[in-house]
Amino acid sequence: MDRRTFTKLIGLLALPSKKSLGEVLRNPKIVVVGAGIIGTMIAYELVKKGAKVVLIDKEIPASGASGNSFSWINATYPKKPFSYNLLSQMGIEAYKNLETEFNLDIKWSGSLEWFEEIDQQENLFTEIKAIKKYPTYTPVSLISSLEAEYLEPKVYFGDDNTIVHSESDGAIDTIQAIQIIHNEFERLGGESIFSCEFLKLNEKNGRLKSIDTTKGKIEVDHAVFACGIDTDKSLDIDTSSTPTPGIILESKPVENRFNKIIVGPGVHIHQQNDGAIILGEQDGAPINHYDRLKERPDKFPNKEFEELHTERIINRAKNFTTGLEDIVIEKISIGWRPLPKDRIPIIGRLNKIDGVYVSMMHSGISLAAIVSKLVCEEILENKSIPLLDDFRPSRFA
Ligand SMILES: Cc1cc2nc3c(=O)[nH]c(=O)nc-3n(C[C@H](O)[C@H](O)[C@H](O)COP(=O)(O)OP(=O)(O)OC[C@H]3O[C@@H](n4cnc5c(N)ncnc54)[C@H](O)[C@@H]3O)c2cc1C
Known about the structure:
Layout: H1 3-13, H2 21-24, E1 29-33, H3 37-48, E2 52-57, E3 72-73, H4 82-98, E4 106-107, E5 111-113, H5 118-131, E6 140-144, H6 145-151, E7 162-166, E8 170-172, H7 174-187, E9 191-194, E10 198-204, E11 207-213, E12 216-219, E13 222-225, H8 231-235, E14 244-251, E15 261-263, E16 267-271, E17 277-281, H9 303-318, E18 329-337, E19 346-349, E20 356-360, H10 364-380
Parallel strand pairs: 1-2, 1-13, 2-9, 5-15, 13-20
Antiparallel strand pairs: 3-8, 4-8, 5-7, 6-7, 10-11, 11-12, 14-17, 14-18, 15-16, 16-17, 19-20
Helix pairs in contact: 3-7, 3-10, 4-10
This protein binds flavin-adenine dinucleotide (FAD).
């Protein structure tokens, strides 16, 4: 989708405001709960449009899934139905717009994806065929393993194999993006309160009045919840499945070895513009480990465990790559994916109290740039954007 079509689409998607201009312009006070990529970008968009915004987090920015993510931006096959795929396509364009404002580390190199198992490979091709029936989709082609090796010489794609080349995908340094956007949020007058946990909503006649936090009461007109895996617990709702863990390794920067996002068997790899190689394990912990992991740690209990897992993941990646022999891992973390029950984003007002809005999704890196713009528009102009109809929290009522 080109940028003009994208801008036109955004315009067409909005319904007229139900409020008078005076109401729209009165600079509402809004608290955003959660300083991951979603909350930080929403807070920034709101403050940019003149709202008085307080961003709170029970820890610090990027301490949740966003700081422990593989950070692949895509609109590829798992994004179904079409509305979700379209939102993701718009997500790519929204990042390109954001890059005109900020110097973000995004490498728009495309991805190469394949599986070892024949049935998974067949399923991938079926999904690609289905995407190609959508009215719009991001460019995707099937290429031979030889062609793929030409694009990515340090990767072995199998003999006589077929590889999916998704050309417009990118990978972002999410932590850096959160830092940059948070700085701008504060420069524009936004207020941040960290180590501040949301506790309770206070309402009068069904309308939000204030929230209680561990650092006191905050009077607000609106509260936006972008608290990832803690969304259900915070709002006493039932929209999510048990989060699943994933391990992310980050190397010290090295010279360029990988051009694209390599979506290989069991391990995904990309190399940031700053030279760091990121490896993401895909399988996660076996389900019988979940009890032991119920506190959802983001670190391993000791150095020995860390080294064991680092070695295991690198060895798995070495099955299909060269170029990892001498890398030094400087960060290993465990991330917990927020998972809506139906895997479709949850975006919209909560019916039970007027003024409460929720935004939770499992492809939050891909979607943050577009979702933050749409959420801001819905709240400040009291609009309902039809593109978001499939994502409303009311579907779980
Ligand atoms: C291993 C892994 C790999 C992934 N790979 C990709 C990928 O390649 N592409 C992609 O698009 N997505 C990917 N994801 C998913 C993506 O990272 C998440 O969807 C995204 O980070 C969610 O962002 P968020 O801001 O909603 O949540 P988070 O980043 O989790 O932020 C939520 C914040 O809310 C705060 N919070 C929670 N409760 C409270 C409270 N009561 N009071 C105050 N603060 C609170 C937390 O401290 C946290 O900072 C991956 C996730 C993982 C774990």
